[in-house]
């Protein structure tokens, strides 16, 4: 498994636990434990911390975007895995350097996370939401 993909998987698992327990304990503590458990020897720790802290600091904006892009799915009704996959994908689409993570890579990685960790239709749902947001971004540029 590629280093960045494993890093995203660790962030997803950490976000899931953080979300499950109503954002307690601190996300940073969960991330640190998950790195030890799932990513010993992983070298790109900065990527994990940038992703998790970035999502945490922008979570309200990201969740509003999810609700706008999927109006028939209130945020609380989206499965916890899909909700957190969308948070990762949207953070990468909106807040990261496009040269470091091109939009299509961010979308593809999110779809792969959904296929691995969620249900059989999750990949299509994630693709639909992130594709909608990406088209809106493209139209603004």
Description:
- There is one protein chain.
- The protein is built from six helices and no strands.
- Helix 1 packs across helix 3 and helix 3 crosses helix 4.
- 74% of the residues lie in helices and 0% in strands.
- The protein is mainly alpha-helical.
- The relative contact order is 0.13.
- It is globular and about 40 Å long.
Task: For this entry, give a set of tags.
single chain, 6 helices, mainly alpha, about 140 residues, about 75% helix
Query: DSSP strand (E) fraction?
Result: under 5%
Q: Could you tell me the radius of gyration in angstroms? A: 14 Å
Q: Please identify the structural class as seen in this structure.
A: mainly alpha
User: Segments where pLDDT lies below 50 for 5+ residues?
Assistant: none
From the N-terminal CA to the C-terminal CA, the straight-line distance is 34 Å
